[in-house]
Each structure stands twice: as structure tokens, then as C-alpha cells.
Specification:
The complex is a heterodimer of chains A (316) and B (282).
Chain A (H helix, E strand, L loop, with lengths): L6 H18 L6 H20 L3 H8 L7 H8 E7 L11 E8 L2 E8 L5 H6 L7 H16 L4 E7 L6 H5 L2 H13 L5 E10 H5 L6 E5 L3 E3 L3 H9 L5 H7 L4 H6 L5 E3 L10 H20 L3 H13 L4 E3 L1
Parallel strand pairs in A: 3-4, 4-5, 5-6, 5-7, 6-8
Antiparallel strand pairs in A: 1-2, 2-3
Chain B lengths: L18 E3 L6 E3 H6 L15 H8 L5 E3 L3 E3 L11 H12 L5 E8 L2 E8 L10 H17 L3 E7 L7 H21 L3 E10 H8 L4 E4 L5 E2 L3 H8 L10 H6 L5 E2 L2 H20 L6
Classes of the chains: A alpha/beta (316), B alpha/beta (282).
The structure holds zinc ion.
């Protein structure tokens, strides 16, 4: 998948890549040309990604090559052991959960997983959980608490699945209980919005001591499509809706909803997932270090105060 | 007309017809009679929507006290769709006589002192923005501190889109609020009425110790239209209605509006009994 606005950039990127290979093969005379093209590429990237409008970021956040939860787990953590099932109905593969080492520390990792190939996407329901997904997340979070492990969550979902089974099995109850459980977890927690933070289905995994968001991720109460259809009564008004909703990382930092923006490599995370993972690892290390210096009571109080003070109103 | 009139601003005078048609059985009903019957159709038991004021009056004694009315809405995103959010707020305030979609009242339900948080669907679809979240959160704090039972009577279309992400965050905030009650062992009862959907359903509505619902109320996370569009098939009759949720084990009781006050009282007398007399079972 190539987005309209990244076409020129990708063309140049490929040219640089090719030249780099030739250069590495020993064609040292290409050095000058390579440097020139690299400068041009950087300039183009800066121009391009500085003027991205919110809708462009929606497209980047949903980019099919964008690294997903399992990519980050593989790149950042070691010895991941995945745990399955809600002990009640089934195993929802749109949420992955388990334990792994972050550097030398065992932690719990929980996140939405959209899948890569068409087959995998279907198996993972495009990252849209059913109640049993949230119940698995709750179960693993409580286990982490039992073992005194920090919890790291990855958020990347269009939203909780709107279907018959999901409603029958209590989507509302599962999300509500997840909000409560993560809100009162006695261990430090960090949430990272890596791609799409879609509504309550995203928030259910994003109540944490620190909330991070990738530069081109989005996080919103409703999809721009849904918002356009309801408020503008016109599905084509997605650009207007995505602007009005204030769903970019920059907006959310300003509104006090997230703590840090994780910068993405030039051209966004899908161009260079390894670098993206490296930067995220740096931020995770920083947050966990901050949180490990606090005791249980402080961790809990801090999180309750953080979410308890969200909102803007007039007090007379 | 109860004593609460002095708290609620006078509604914009409307030439409301004295007659209305029951949407269920099509009987023509005389409004004053319908109101006297708690807005339940005497022919078919259809539960008409109730305003927050009518709800409070139907459950609490006259000396109820309105709380947190000093917390008022703002327009943090300067949101404008086909109409500015500011104008929508003003319109809703004029139309309903309310300052926001959630009204918090403390008073007596017979001889039990309680706090009641009631939503009004006529205020921007009972949607949850920062004020709904903050008022509910404060109600939880108050109830935890004074060990007062909290009852929420809910009707909501979900999140207040015009407050964007801040509206979404109220789901976390209200859920944390319920935690204060859980920690103190204070009863928290929710009554879901038609409709209870989206972000409100998936936060403080479904965190009740006991969850009641009025007959035939539409209750769920995703709206039926969204589900139909997603699965590309028609939904079965009665799907997401209170009786359906009862059958699926998602709620405790379906209560006819005429029995709601007595049912709440019965439940709360038992739930508060041991604490009231400083007793423990063992
Ligand atoms: Zn009728």
C-alpha cells in the first residue's frame, strides 16, 4: 500500500537506497551523488511530514505496513511467552498478552494486534476485540499484579467489534471492567498508542501511569468516518471531522491526555520499523525508571489523580 | 409539581399538545394522565422517556438537594460541525432547563439517604462530556466519604463527540470514580433506561453492583445500525433489549417503572442493613 502523499518521497527513497547499494559495492565515485540525494530526501521528508494534515495521519496510523504490537514485542522484548484465553468463552486473537523481558526485567505485555497478511487479519478480526479479549487482558493484568510486574500495553485498534456475539457476551461490561482494573492496578503501567486508538475499545487498554503516543498515531473518541456520518450527515467530510476531533499526538499532548510523543523516523514508522522500535525502547526505559522509584501507594494515587483530573469545565 | 422546581430553571414555554400518541400501541393519551402514571402507557406499558426532573421526583422525597450545579460545560476544542458546539449547548440548556446532561441530587428514598445521578436524554442525547464525568466523579467521592449509597439512572447515546478525546477520557474517570465506592463498600446501583449505549454503557453503567433496567430499553455498546452495517445482516427481534440482556446474564432485573422505587428501596435496605447497625455477619 502506498499513500498518495508519500509517492514522491518513496520514489526518492528507493533511488537513494539503490545508490547506497551501488556505493557499498565499491563505486566510491557515487559518493557525491549519494550525499546530494540523501540531503534532498531529508529535505523532502521534512517538507512533507511537517505539513501533514490530521487526515494524512489517520492514513499513516492505519498504514498496512506500519509495525504492529507483535512487531514491537519481537523488536523490544525477549523471551515472550504468550498466554491465551479468558477462561470462560474463548481466546480472542485480536488481543495478545503475556510475559516477556524488557531489558533485564520481566514485565507483562498486552496489546491489540491487527495482523499482517489477509489470513492473519481475518484471524485477528482486524484488531477489533470481543469481550473475551478484554477479559483476557484483565486476567493477565491481574497476574502481573500478583507477580509485581510492570505492565506495558500497546494500543492499535479501530475499536471494539460491533457484532451480535460481542453484545451478547457483554462488550460494555468487559470494557468497563477493564477500565476499572487497569485504573486500580497496583503495579506501574505504561500504555503506548502505536497506530490507531479507536474509542472505548482502545481506552480499555490505555489507562496507565504513563501514556505515550507515536508521532503519527491517532487517538479519538470516534473514527473520522463515524463522526462525519453522525455530525455532518455526510460520509465524505472525513477531513473536516479529523481536524475537528483533535486526534493527533500533538493535539493530545496539548490537551494533557498523553505524556510523551514518540518521534517517528523520517517518512513514518513503516519506512524504518527498527529505528521506531529503538526510539520507543528509549521512552519505555525512561518511563519505567521514573515509575520504579515510587511505591505502590504512589503509583495508584498518581494514576487515579491523572485520570480523575481529565476534562475541561467551568467551575463557578 | 415538586419542590425541585426552584432548582431547575423554567423550561422554554412551548405550546405542548395535551395529547400524545403511544408509539407502541398507537393509543391517544391525555398528557396529564400519562404524567400521573409515571409516563407509562396505561394500555400497553410502553415506558415513555422521562426527564431528569420527572425521574428525581418519582424516586426521592421533596426535600432533595441539587449538587454540583456550579460545574458547567465549556468548549475546549472549539468544535464546529454543521453548528458550533457552543450553540448546541445553549440550545440544549434552553430546551431542557438543565445545565448539563447529568443531574446529581441527594435526598431520601423513603427513609434511606442516597445520592441519585440522573441523565436526561434531551440534553444532547444524554451524551457524556467533561461535566457529566466530573459531576459523576464528585458524586462518587461524596458517597465514598459519607458512605451514602449511589444510584445512577442512565439514558445516553454515548460519548459527547464535540469534546473529542476529553469525552473519551470520562469513561476512565467515571470508572475510577466507581472504584471509590467499591473500596469503601458503599452500594452502587445502576438503572439502565432507554437507550443506554456506547461510552456510558461501557463505563459507569455496567459497573453497578446491581444492574436494573426498564422494560424494553435498548442497551449495548455498539448501536444497532452500526452492527447491521458491519455484519451486513438484519438483527434479530428484541436484540439489545433489556429482556434479551437479562436472558444473556448481563443484567440483574428488569423492573417496571411503577415498581422501581420499591425495588430500589428493598435492595438498599438489605445492602445497607449490616453497616447501619454496625454489625457484621461473623
Ligand atoms: Zn401504549
Amino acid at each position: 500500500m502506498v499513500l498518495e502523499f508519500e509517492k514522491d518521497y518513496l520514489e526518492l527513497y528507493q533511488k537513494v537506497d539503490q545508490l547506497k547499494r551501488i556505493y557499498k559495492l565499491g563505486n566510491k565515485e557515487k559518493e557525491e551523488e549519494l550525499r546530494k540525494l540523501q540531503r534532498e530526501l531529508r529535505k523532502k521528508a521534512k517538507e512533507l511530514y511537517r505539513k501533514l494534515d490530521p487526515w494524512d495521519r489517520v492514513l499513516l496510523a492505519r498504514h498496512s505496513q506500519r509495525p504492529h504490537t507483535l512487531d514491537y514485542i519481537n523488536m523490544i522484548f525477549r523471551n515472550f511467552i504468550e498466554l491465551h484465553g479468558d477462561r470462560c468463552f474463548g481466546d480472542d486473537r485480536s488481543i495478545v498478552a503475556g510475559f516477556a523481558y524488557f531489558e533485564s526485567m520481566p514485565v507483562a505485555v498486552i496489546g491489540h494486534e491487527k495482523g499482517k497478511s489477509t489470513k492473519e487479519k481475518m484471524e485477528r478480526n482486524f484488531g477489533m476485540p470481543h469481550p473475551e479479549g478484554y477479559r483476557k487482558a484483565i486476567r493477565v493484568a491481574k497476574l502481573a499484579e500478583k507477580y509485581h510486574m510492570p505492565v506495558i500495553t500497546f494500543v492499535d485498534t479501530p475499536g471494539a467489534y460491533p457484532g451480535i456475539g460481542a453484545e451478547e457476551r457483554g462488550q460494555s461490561e468487559a470494557i468497563a471492567e477493564s477500565l476499572y482494573t487497569f485504573g486500580y492496578l497496583k503495579v506501574p503501567s505504561v500504555a503506548v498508542v502505536i497506530g490507531e486508538g479507536g474509542s472505548g475499545g482502545a481506552l480499555a487498554l490505555a489507562v496507565a501511569n504513563r501514556v505515550l503516543m507515536f508521532e503519527n498515531a491517532i487517538y479519538s473518541v470516534i473514527s473520522p468516518e463515524g463522526c462525519a456520518a453522525i455530525l455532518w450527515k455526510d460520509q465524505s467530510k472525513v477531513k473536516e471531522a479529523s481536524l475537528a476531533l483533535k486526534l493527533t499526538a500533538q493535539d493530545l499532548l496539548r490537551l494533557g491526555v498523553i505524556d510523551y510523543i514518540v518521534p517517528e523516523p523520517l517518512g513514518a514508522s513503516h519506512i524504518d520499523p527498527v529505528r521506531s522500535a529503538r526510539v520507543l525502547k528509549y521512552f519505555l526505559r525512561k518511563c519505567i525508571k521514573q515509575l520504579l522509584s515510587k511505591n505502590t501507594e504512589e503509583i495508584l494515587r498518581e494514576r487515579i489523580e491523572k485520570f480523575g483530573s481529565m476534562g475541561v469545565f467551568l467551575e463557578q | 409539581m415538586g419542590i425541585l422546581d426552584r432548582f431547575f430553571k423554567k423550561k422554554k414555554e412551548e405550546k405542548e399538545s395535551l395529547w400524545t400518541k403511544c408509539p407502541e400501541c398507537k393509543t391517544i393519551l391525555y398528557m396529564p394522565e400519562l404524567s400521573a402514571n409515571l409516563k407509562v402507557c396505561p394500555k400497553c406499558n410502553y415506558h415513555f422517556p422521562m426527564s431528569a426532573k420527572e425521574r428525581v421526583e418519582s424516586l426521592l422525597d421533596e426535600n432533595a438537594q441539587l449538587l454540583f450545579e456550579n460545574i458547567l460545560p465549556k468548549d475546549p476544542l472549539r468544535f464546529k460541525d454543521t453548528k458550533p458546539y457552543k450553540d448546541r449547548l445553549k440550545q440544549a440548556q434552553e430546551d431542557t432547563g438543565l445545565s448539563e446532561a447529568l443531574v446529581v441530587v441527594r435526598g431520601n428514598l423513603k427513609d434511606i439517604h442516597v445520592v441519585l445521578a440522573v441523565m436526561d436524554f434531551n440534553f444532547i442525547g444524554g451524551s457524556m462530556g467533561s461535566v457529566v464525568g466530573e459531576r459523576f466523579y464528585r458524586a462518587c467521592k461524596l458517597c465514598a466519604n459519607e458512605e451514602l449509597p449511589l444510584i445512577s439512572v442512565i439514558t445516553s447515546g454515548g460519548a459527547r463527540m464535540q469534546e473529542g478525546i476529553l469525552s473519551l477520557m470520562q469513561m476512565a474517570k467515571t470508572s475510577i470514580g466507581v472504584g471509590f465506592l467499591r473500596e469503601k463498600g458503599v452500594p452502587y446501583i445502576t438503572v439502565l433506561t432507554d437507550p443506554t449505549m456506547g461510552g456510558v454503557s461501557a463505563s459507569f453503567a455496567f459497573l453497578g453492583d446491581v444492574i436494573m433496567a426498564e422494560p424494553k430499553s435498548l442497551i449495548g455498546f455498539a448501536g444497532p445500525r452500526v452492527i447491521e452495517q458491519t455484519i451486513k445482516q438484519q438483527l434479530p427481534e428484541g436484540f439489545q433489549r433489556a429482556e434479551f440482556l437479562l436472558e444473556k446474564g448481563m443484567i440483574d432485573i428488569v423492573v417496571h417503572r411503577k415498581e422501581l422505587k420499591d425495588t430500589l428501596y428493598k435492595l438498599l435496605s438489605m445492602a445497607t442493613y449490616w453497616k447501619r447497625f454496625n454489625l457484621t455477619a461473623l
